[in-house]
Amino acid sequence: MVRNIVKDPIVLSRPSSAAEINDLGTAQDLLDTIKANAEKCVGMAANMIGVHKTILVALIDNRYEVMINPVILKKSSPYETQEGCLSLEGVRKTKRCRIIKVEYLDMDFKKRIKTLKDFNAQIIQHEMDHFEGILI
Known about the structure:
Elements: H1 9-12, H2 24-36, E1 43-45, E2 55-60, E3 63-85, E4 88-105, E5 111-117, H3 118-131
């Protein structure tokens, strides 16, 4: 189901808790919602649709990737950049790493590990900040 995008910074600032298998409906809602906003969005965290669980969806190499309970295992090559967010107006400065190694569960709750670089890594770091209530 396509959900409304949360724009309230107080709601977005609340930390998220670990997702469980019964939260797969939220993952599907995220997929539906990001696809409905594809022209202006490449990543979305569950709190952006009002659910405070550690689930994100990102457009990685032209394919939507669902990451449940992702954890960054390794990161390198920090740099400064600017980002926008569907939940916020404008762009803001932030720091990211060019290369990350992330462990997560897929939609079948199978463990995956992926190394991401450049813009793909940036997307994941941005969405994972949402889990901590960090707004750029």
